[in-house]
Specification:
Elements: E1 2-5, H1 11-21, H2 28-37, E2 43-47, E3 50-60, E4 64-72, H3 81-93, E5 100-106, H4 111-117, E6 121-126, E7 136-142
Parallel strand pairs: 4-5
Antiparallel strand pairs: 1-2, 2-3, 3-4, 5-7, 6-7
Bound molecules: coenzyme A.
């Protein structure tokens, strides 16, 4: 297993991976912009040269780290990799004086339990936030 910074030549494979493993549809350009803004916060997990996980975030002006994507292929879940990716993002965000993590998660997602384990709490509800009409939950943690 290898965790490294996302390279632009991985874009097509990443799009395929996200399509297979998440419900939302994304535009390619979005990921190039995210990488341009904060390359150290955009990580890819590979096994035998194949993408099995990814995460990316953005540093907001108000000393917040917003986690945009965090996903692992099902066979690679519950092995501590998600926690490792979050910790790596938090570590690289410290240089920007980040004091809070924020993210949105589907109301029907098991990931809420994962984020609770990491110390995040639900602070807001976003009605019909996702493309299929599912509500979003905003979760945050002070660092
Ligand atoms: C959510 C996700 C990123 C978590 O990553 P992971 O590698 O499976 O989680 P970890 O193994 O690092 O777990 C860290 C802790 O959270 C707990 N946890 C993880 N998933 C959990 C779940 N579904 N229910 C309850 N607890 C969970 C683990 O037991 C572990 O607790 P511990 O530290 O006491 O042992 C991963 O399951 C995933 O990709 N899910 C599908 C995509 C998704 O929903 N992404 C989030 C969108 S915002």
């Amino acid at each position: 297993m290898n965790i490294s910074a996302f390279e632009t030549n991985q874009l097509d494979e990443l799009m395929e991976f996200l399509d297979d493993n998440l419900n939302e549809n994304y535009e390619k350009n979005v990921f190039l912009n995210i990488r341009k803004r904060w390359p150290e916060g955009f990580l890819i997990v590979e096994n035998k040269g194949e993408i099995v996980g990814a995460c990316c975030g953005a540093i907001l002006p108000n000393e917040k780290l917003r986690v945009l994507i965090l996903v692992l292929q099902r066979d690679y879940q519950r092995q501590g990799i998600g926690k490792d990716l979050m910790n790596r993002m938090i570590k690289s965000s410290k240089i920007f004086g980040v004091k809070k993590i924020t993210l949105e998660v589907r109301k029907d997602s098991e990931a809420i339990q994962f984020y609770r384990k990491l110390g995040l709490s639900s602070v807001d509800l976003l009605p019909c936030y996702y493309q299929d009409g599912c509500d979003g939950i905003v979760m945050e943690k002070h660092l």
